[in-house]
């Protein structure tokens, strides 16, 4: 009953927040996503698997059924078309009786459920980004706080052993025999990936927020989030975080003082990494034989075997994507895969994989748009780079399209960076403080979103790139 009540609360809360603004709706949805793992682990019922789903449905209904805001730019026709095609093909596959109906429905959910977030991402404006960035910063602090408690008290204190938490208990390969820390998420990978995924928005909040308290919040949260990546002891996220740091220095246009502060942040995290053996699992990447064997098993053996045996796919859910433990025994000819593209092939066949490859080629062709100048240009560049890296390494793991809430960050980033930033009015006050759902008052409008010079006396104002 508790899990069912939480599903209802998630639906109503996200619907209410989504009616107020897209940014606030996303913050509430992320809150349920951050706590989804620990709630599901301690409420061992079937309804606990749908808490996040209920919240997302509420947000979709709130946003897509609301009267059109005249200030909101129209959705990109290309992005709408791609979203339709990506959803339509799996929807047609559910008509094929390859897998049991419940298995196919779960497979349909994992293949299409996050795709409407592409359109939500394309609707993000300055007001939404400020709200989203503040919300993510606060949620990161809470998550790393739980991770700290698990570090000292032990993961079993928070995650009892069950079929839901089996993946957590199978990851006891940290120095000293410790478990990788999941914080409040479904796994350590979801924890570390989310911490990395929020970094572009923390950097954006640090550089764009008008109030010093918000900039301080972002600056404090950044090293703590990177510390969370080390606590998760996930090698891929360490590589991803390191690549994003390099991307920030090479692609992002940072002022000298921002670069110095960023170096200080990285140095603090590096100190913890070098002085604590439990944070050094990433050193196993130096074992080239193990890495090569892992890549060969993921890319070559699984992919080509699936392509040969199931060229038209094993049906939705046939590759076990995000399958609840109580339905795993119902999957026919279950495929075990360590390759996201092979997983798509295993469930959607060659046609589905071809559609996804074509979509990704279109997305990467939009790189000049992602790097366009604007008030959030640095965040857009980092979000695009993070997304590109995620898709570029998807052949050595799964979960890229089903992680909660990591996939939420991924799809928002794809939708936001694939369309040109809209010319909009930007208030001189933080939009988090404005009455949500109402247009800003005339005196709050200070400038137009185009290159300007800094005006003396405008506290916290930042120059556009």
The helix content is 55-70%
Strand content: under 5%
Mean pLDDT: 80
Which quaternary structure do these chains form?
Answer: single chain
Low-confidence segments: 425-465
Comma- or semicolon-separated keywords:
disordered C terminus; 465 residues; globular; mainly alpha; two-stranded antiparallel ribbon; single chain; 2 strands
Describe this entry's structure for a reader.
The radius of gyration is 22 Å and the shape is globular. Mean pLDDT is 80; it is low at 425-465. It has a two-stranded antiparallel ribbon. It has 17 helices and 2 strands. With 465 residues, it is mainly α. Helix 4 (77-93) packs antiparallel against helix 14, helix 9 (188-208) packs parallel to helix 11 (235-250) and helix 11 (235-250) packs antiparallel against helix 16 (377-392). It has helices at 2-20, 22-42, 51-64, 77-93, 101-112, 117-122, 126-153, 166-169, 188-208, 212-232, 235-250, 256-275, 288-309, 340-365, 367-370, 377-392, 406-417, and strands at residues 425-427, 445-448. Helix content is 60%, strand content 2%.
What's the short version?
With 465 residues, the protein is mostly helical. Helix content is 60%, strand content 2%.
How do the helices and strands line up, and which of them pair or pack?
Elements lengths: L1 H19 L1 H21 L8 H14 L12 H17 L7 H12 L4 H6 L3 H28 L12 H4 L18 H21 L3 H21 L2 H16 L5 H20 L12 H22 L30 H26 L1 H4 L6 H16 L13 H12 L7 E3 L17 E4 L17
Antiparallel strand pairs: 1-2
Helix pairs in contact: 1-2, 1-3, 2-3, 2-7, 4-14, 7-9, 7-10, 9-10, 9-11, 9-16, 10-12, 11-16, 13-14, 16-17
């Amino acid at each position: 009953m508790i899990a069912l009540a939480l599903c209802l609360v998630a639906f109503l809360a996200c619907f209410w927040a989504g009616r107020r603004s897209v940014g606030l709706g996303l913050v509430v949805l992320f809150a349920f996503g951050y706590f989804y793992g620990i709630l599901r682990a301690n409420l061992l019922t079937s309804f606990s698997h749908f808490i996040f789903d209920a919240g997302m449905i509420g947000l979709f209904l709130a946003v897509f059924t609301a009267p059109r805001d005249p200030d909101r730019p129209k959705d990109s026709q290309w992005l709408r078309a791609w979203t339709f095609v990506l959803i339509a093909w799996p929807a047609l596959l559910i008509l094929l009786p390859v897998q049991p109906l419940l298995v196919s429905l779960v497979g349909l959910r994992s293949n299409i459920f996050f795709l409407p977030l592409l359109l939500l991402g394309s609707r993000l404006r300055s007001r939404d980004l400020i709200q989203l960035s503040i919300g993510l910063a606060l949620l990161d602090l809470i998550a790393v706080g739980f991770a700290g408690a698990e570090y000292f008290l032990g993961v079993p204190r928070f995650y009892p052993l069950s079929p839901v938490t089996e993946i957590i208990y199978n990851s006891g390969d940290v120095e000293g025999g410790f478990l990788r820390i999941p914080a409040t998420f479904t796994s350590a990978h979801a924890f570390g990936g989310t911490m990395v995924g929020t970094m572009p928005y923390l950097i954006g909040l640090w550089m764009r927020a008008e109030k010093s308290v918000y900039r301080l919040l972002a600056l404090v949260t950044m090293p703590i989030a990177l510390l969370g990546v080390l606590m998760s002891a996930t090698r891929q996220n360490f590589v991803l975080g390191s690549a994003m740091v390099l991307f920030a220095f090479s692609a992002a246009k940072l002022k000298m003082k921002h670069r110095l502060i960023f170096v200080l942040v990285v140095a603090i995290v590096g100190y913890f990494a070098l002085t604590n053996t439990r944070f050094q699992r990433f050193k196993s990447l130096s074992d080239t034989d193990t890495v090569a064997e892992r890549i060969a098993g993921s890319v070559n053996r699984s992919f080509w075997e699936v392509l040969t045996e199931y060229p038209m796919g094993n049906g939705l859910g046939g590759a076990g994507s995000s399958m609840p433990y109580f339905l795993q025994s119902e999957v026919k000819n279950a495929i075990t895969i360590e390759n996201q593209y092979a997983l798509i092939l295993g469930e959607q066949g060659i046609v589905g994989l071809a559609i996804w490859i074509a979509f990704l080629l279109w997305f990467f062709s939009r790189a000049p748009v992602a790097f366009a100048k604007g008030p959030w240009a640095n965040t857009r560049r980092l979000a695009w780079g993070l997304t590109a890296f995620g898709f570029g390494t998807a052949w050595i793991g799964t979960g890229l399209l089903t992680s909660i809430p990591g996939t939420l960050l991924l799809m928002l980033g794809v939708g936001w960076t694939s369309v040109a930033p809209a010319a909009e009015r930007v208030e001189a006050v933080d939009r988090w403080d404005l009455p949500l759902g109402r247009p800003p008052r005339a005196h709050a409008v200070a400038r137009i979103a185009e290159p300007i010079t800094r005006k003396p006396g405008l506290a916290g104002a930042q120059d556009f790139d």
